[in-house]
Structure formats: C-alpha cells, structure tokens
From TrEMBL:
SMART domains: PKS_KR (SM00822). Its EC number is 1.1.1.-. Coiled coil: none annotated. Pfam families: adh_short. It is an enzyme of class 1 (oxidoreductase). InterPro entries: KR_dom (IPR057326), NAD(P)-bd_dom_sf (IPR036291), Peroxisomal_Beta-Oxidation (IPR051687), Sc_DH/Rdtase_CS (IPR020904), SDR_fam (IPR002347). Gene3D superfamilies: NAD(P)-binding Rossmann-like Domain (3.40.50.720). Keywords: Oxidoreductase. GO terms for molecular function: oxidoreductase activity. This is SDR family oxidoreductase. The keyword Ion transport does not apply. Residues 7-184 form the Ketoreductase domain. It comes from Phenylobacterium terrae. Belongs to the short-chain dehydrogenases/reductases (SDR) family.
Amino acid sequence: MGLLDGKVAIVTGAGGGLGEAYAKLFAKEGAAVVVNDLGGARDGTGADRSAAQKVVDEIIAAGGRAVANGDDVSTVQGGENICNAALENFGRVDILVCNAGILRDKTFANTSEQDWDAVIKVHLKGTYCCAMPVWKWMKDNGGGTMVFTSSTSGLYGNFGQTNYGAAKAGIYGMVRVMSIEGRKYNIRVMGLAPGAYTRMTSDLPGRKDREPDPMSLPENVAPGVLYMVSDLAKDHSGKILGVSSRGVREIKMVQTAGFDPGRPYTAEEVAKNADKVFFPTEDRTVTVQPVAPAQPQPA
C-alpha cells in the first residue's frame, strides 16, 4: 500500500530537479502523475518538451502511471490544459504541486521591467493559472490538496532577488487566503519553502564549480513534500513548511506584543517604546533562520 494509492497528482516544473523528484516519489507511492514542464532555460527562455516525457518514461518503466504535459504554466489556457490532462487521462485530480519557476537575479537597480514581469508571471501568475481550474474541479468533487512553492527569499529576503522574492511572498499570501476559503470545500492548501541543490541553485556563491553534497539532492527533499500532499498531513492547512535534507520545520509570521497605549499617540511615543514595538536583535537572529543559506546573487 502506498501513501497515494488511487490519487492523481499534477506536478508543474517536473522535468528535472525538485519537481522530477516529487513526481517519481508520488508515482512510487501509487499516484498517477501529470508531469508538466515547458522545458525552458533557467531564465524562462526557450522550450523543450522532451524533459517531461523523459521523466514519464522513467516512471512508466518503474511500473508507475504518468503522462507528460508541456504547457506554459503562466497562461490561463496552459493551466486549463494541465488540469485537463489529469482529467482526460486519469479521470480526476487530487493533488496539485506548483513547482515551476525561473530566475532572473539582479540587484533592484538593475532589474528591468522584462525581468520583473517574467519572474512574477511564471511564479505568481503561474500559481494562479494552474490552481484556478484545479480549484474549481476540487470544489465540486469533494476537495483535494494543493502545495504552492514559496521561498526563504520571499519569506526572509535575499540579496539580488527582488522580483523572485516578491513573487514568492505573494504565493505565501495565496496560501493563507486560499486555505481559509478552502475549508468549506475540503481543499487543503500548504506552502513549501524547499532547500536543495538543483540547476536553480547550482551557481550560488559557495556552490559554483563544486560537487553537490549528496544529502542536498532533490530526492532527499521529496519525502517532506510527500508528507504534505498525503493524508498524513490532513489536519494541516494554511501552513508553510521549510523542507530540506536536514528535515522539516514550520515557518510562521509572528508579531511583538507591541506598544498599545489605548489612546491616540505620537511618533515620539512610538520611539520611546521601540523596545516593545521591535523584536530584540538576538530574537530576530534566531527567528529569521533560512532553510537554505541566503547568499548574495550576481548583480
């Protein structure tokens, strides 16, 4: 018996890296999988739909069920086609993992409108485009589970990733709101901040031209995501998990007790009570602990 027996899962950006690891593990655990990947370069240019088919061939060779899809997640039509691939081939959809993404890292001063729009479109709009048709189907058919990929770059910040961080912070907002709206329909929504060695992270400072640590490979992250989409996590929605080879941890937004005089106040009074408004520096250091090391990106 597998954890996902009888389930149908969609994994976007599954032609390599983390998405491929998720798709293969889901299939091993009994799910039929739609493997979506446009097959573009890391910056989102180009397309090679053979990437998704290669993963499908490997899943089928291992005795699993899967179908390839090469649609663009950042378009409404692409999202509908991806959902339809699950319905037409397997008759239902129980799990959606939005994993597809691109990078165009630059300091904010050097970020062009094109770089901004491309990253927001794939990550944030892409999550919307893929989630909407699946959400509507789940809403009318007993519910399901969605996992959206955020990032420590959006939750904590990272040098040179304003566009990426903004998109990933927006996805956090989607998780929080959609988990509330999904309660009445039995739709669980969770957020994921993964940490792994993939082509998206292979040239970060300290990693370039080095052999990856075997523990940091995607297949060592996938079990945490399997937990999230399985019934083992059925009591959890609206939560963000940091998942890496080192383990799994919840990431939460917190606030201080604050300065609350119960009457109109002045800016000077806020300054005098700054110790109540802000977390102590040492507490912030402990709280803001990225899942993967946050390091400067090239300008």
